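[job 0412] stage=complex_fold ligand=guanosine-5'-diphosphate-alpha-D-mannose status=START
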Amino acid sequence: MTSSLPLAPAQAVPASVDATGPALSHTPAPALTVVIPTFNERGNLEPLVARLERVLAGIAWEAIFVDDNSPDGTADALRAIGRRDPRIRCIRRIGRRGLAGACIEGMLAAQAPIVAVMDADLQHDEGLLPRMLEAMGVGADVVVATRYAPGGDAEGFSAWRGRGSRLATTLAQRVLHVTSSDPMSGFFMLRRETLEQLAPKLSTQGFKILLDILATAKGRLKVTELSYSFGVRQSGDSKLDNRVLMDFLGLIVAKASGGLVSLRFLSFATVGAAGLVVHLAALRIGLGFALSFLVAQTIATLTAMTFNYVLNNLLTYRDRRLSGWAFLRGLVAFYAICGLGAAANVGAAEWAFYQTAQWWLAGIAGAFIGAVWNYAMSRTLVWKDAA
Ligand code: GDD
Ligand code: MN
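[job 0412] stage=complex_fold status=DONE, emitting structure tokens
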């Protein structure tokens, strides 16, 4: 194929721009990239950059802010700072939200071999960064800035938030066998290479990026901890909400079951169990109206399937909720899938009954196969998996 695009004259491109070639400017390549996720943090940017400048004097650094299109104009404010100081860059994501995903994208865009992640709201003590870098220099794979080791504290938390954080920490340590004193910390450092190896397995939802890194690496990383005092947020509000908590529980369930059970499946199965109650109630009412069993059972089945569909659309798949025509199309597909699921259920139960002669075991096996079928098929055909 011939290109009609005007090509730059060859001599405009330096002969060698690989790692061994001559530096193109007087700015040294960064040794440290600080990744800072932001959502509505405009008021904290100037003081944060001034503090980074102060504590990182003498270190070649860059900062990558990852902003999820904050309505308060965080990205514009960052561009203005970047005009004055090219070490400051901003990745602006549109149509996406999520702290963990933002951190991952920022780390993947880092130029330096070592990356730190910290919050923008001045709750993290940036004065720790040079010591974290030192610890990396003497063999740490991950350096965690901890609130829960001697010398650290979480004063910036309200009483209930502090208790919640500690409970989540204990749960994470017990279930996931993570030994860090603060696996929920949003302030840590690691080699970019380590992150690049783990990245394909990390979840982009929620707040638990460090926990996910430690759990996914399964104890293979040498963790060093440095204590600090978690301060009070300077400007703006915390973004931790119920969804973040659900997400955290989801990670615990998924990792504890080796990826076998997801929070989505548990939600789907719970909705299914509630649907059974609806089914029986509808059947009882139908029989009360002197309908024949076949008619009452048919109406009850349709009622329960519709109930399941609506509830799954509201809860299990709230992040890809269907509406309008897509809602109706999804409902029809769901009826078809559940119909086949019922056949799979009966078939599996019959087989299990011949094998074990235990009616209850066969019943459970059938229900389980039916649920897995309904889940797997509706996940791919109704609430389509994101690519
Ligand atoms: N890009 C992006 N997208 N950034 C986000 C998002 C998001 O959806 N949600 C939050 N952030 C940014 C905030 O702007 C802030 O810089 C940082 O992530 C932390 O968010 P906060 O809302 O301030 O969190 P917190 O102070 O309540 O929670 C702290 O403690 C948690 C554990 O107890 C943080 O340190 C968390 O990282 C930590 O997991
Ligand atoms: Mn905060």
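Residues 37-39, 41, 66-68, 97-99, 102, 119-121, 123, 165, 184, 186, 207, 238-240 surround guanosine-5'-diphosphate-alpha-D-mannose (ligand 1) (CB under 6 Å).
[job 0412] exit 0
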